[in-house]
Amino acid sequence: MILVAFAAAGCAGNDRTAVHGVWIPDPSFTDMMHTREAVTADVKALHDMGINTLFVCAYARTATIFPSEVYLKNSTFDNIDDCYMLAPYRNGYSADSTGFDPLRDLIDEAHKRDMKVILWFEYGFMGSHGETPADHPLLAAHPEWQSRASDGGQANYNGSDYYLNGYHEDFQNFMLDLIDEALVRYPDIDGVQCDDRMPAMPRNSGYDDYTSALYLEETGAVPPADFNDAGWVRWRLDRLNAFARRLEAVVRNRGDYMLCFSPNPYPWCAENLMQEYPAWIADGVVDLLSVQCYRFDADSYASTLNGVIESVGDRQDLLNPGIILKVGDRTIAPDVLDRQLEITREAGIGGQSFFYNEGLLDPKTAEVVKRHCR
């Protein structure tokens, strides 16, 4: 569905230099990338609401938003279209498919309006929702990338999100190569974003042969049965934090790009998904931190935001709270959204990012966003 453009209306006191972002999920969740007309109209509509940054899903499930030779050569796919999430929309995109590249069109349309485009590598270290099958295109090509939990099964969060082995150097290199490929292919994008799945691993992870052997080599001990053992937790956090530093080196090597992260609030994110974003801040790898303060009421949002502000210490300048608009069939009430944005401004934070663009199809929600972002 194409968004309706709203009339521009200034709002005194709003920080127009702050990041007013929105996430654009993979095209199975939004029509935005299905036609050139939708790309053009939706980018304009978002700009008219005051949105100045687009976080575009670049990797989800078993596909990328650009034709990826890196994914193809590391998978069991035979054809690059098999791992290209926009391939199914080629016929509907225009009568002439010459030059077909909806991402290229989105970047061009956004940059015409001084909007930034950040490629969001959504799935990160995660393999699948539900147990990752043996014929998963990455796992079938690289069975050594399988993860293991303390119970012997695949490492997972909450019995829903199942992970590949984010501690494995070769798998980490695959993800870094995928990101580097995007920067080479689209050198004029503005940055990359990792969310609550990279660098991340479920707390019960690390019991695969590769990680166990590495732990034994470095510490002289086998991983303890208790996955909450303090030393074992620290070792795994350190390994994932080191990936954040490696990621920064790859990104900085290619140019002046923003390096963005969108974890869950701390310490929950460390206790559940091994994400220690205060360490990333201390290491200087974070340019924008869109912590997922996803709450459907104002009081819970205020409490969550206060905790996040405390967790970033004197680097509140990096903070760009993530605000929920829609998940599944559930949407935020416009008056609650209005209050959450007031709370954000009262905390001295000039911007935020919204999950996700389809939530802005509601005219009342869009008007609230326009009032706070323009």
State the strand order across the main sheet: 11-10-9-5-2-1-15-12
Structure classification: alpha/beta
What's the tally of helices? 13
Poorly predicted ranges? 1-13
- Mean pLDDT reading: 94
**What is the helical fraction, as a range of percent?**
25-40%
**What is the beta-strand fraction?**
5-15%
Biggest beta sheet summary: 8 strands, parallel
Give Rg in angstroms: 20 Å
The outline comes out as: globular
Q: What series of H and E elements makes up the topology? A: EHEEEHHHEEHEEHEHHEHHEHEEEHEH
Strand runs, count: 15
Give the termini separation: 23 Å
Written account of the structure:
The structure is a single chain. The protein has helices at 36-49, 69-73, 90-93, 102-112, 137-141, 169-185, 209-219, 230-254, 268-273, 277-282, 298-312, 334-346, 363-373, and strands spanning 20-24, 53-57, 59-60, 63-64, 116-120, 126-129, 156-157, 161-163, 191-195, 258-262, 288-289, 322-324, 326-327, 330-331, 352-355. With 374 residues, it is of the alpha/beta class. It has an eight-stranded parallel sheet. Strands 6-8-7 form a three-stranded antiparallel sheet, with no helix packed on it. It has a two-stranded antiparallel sheet with strand order 3-4. Strand 3 (59-60) and strand 4 (63-64) form a beta hairpin. Helix 11 packs parallel to helix 12. Mean pLDDT is 94; it is low at 1-13.
